[in-house]
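Feature request, filed as a ticket because there's no other form

It would be nice if the structure record came with a short human-readable summary line next to the tokens. Right now we just get the raw output. Example of a typical job, pasted below so the devs can see what we mean:
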Amino acid sequence: MKYFAFTRQQWILFCFSLLYVAGFTTYYLASANYEFLWYVAVLVFFFVLLVVTLPASRFSTTILWGLSLWGLMHMAGGSIPVGDGVLYGVQLVDIAHDGEFTLIKYDQLVHAFGFGVATMVAHHLLAPRWKEGASKALLYTLAVCIGMGLGAVNEIVEFLAVLSFPETGVGGYFNTSLDLVFNTIGAVSAVIVLAFQERKKRR
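Raw output as currently delivered:
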């Protein structure tokens, strides 16, 4: 593999990510929030994987910032106190309010944003391997499916947290189902943006 030098923008992004991970880790340790320490471990794993594979993946700055901001939104959601709970439980837009069936919450916004970014990651990795003239609609569909699949993996990680820790803020059936819905909204929104950008380039 040829020598790969990280850009100044990438170094800024890495430092920014490390700072907020270190800060929230310290906070979770001090408050004995072992559930989110588990999420920190998962986040660090993917951060290291991203850095190690970046010479091959060559993700755009937009994707890298999107991934970093997703991590920040997740960490903030589980730690910033709001009322009797944390930021994750805050209702941003009052569309429905019936127990767990509450729309639209900060948690759902994070799911839509995060798996929209994950869908862009999938598209970035698939597009260079896509044959010239092959169906773009199929490419976008596969990217959405991968984004939704990663969303399902996220729900498995949350389920493992429920099994491992006596108290979690994961929620029940409605919460899981709404997470999957917003994962899908984020994934579909991402490919709409990508398709619009592609069309603009052709013009």
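Something like this underneath would help us a lot:
The longest strand covers residues 91-98.
Residues 61-202 form one domain.
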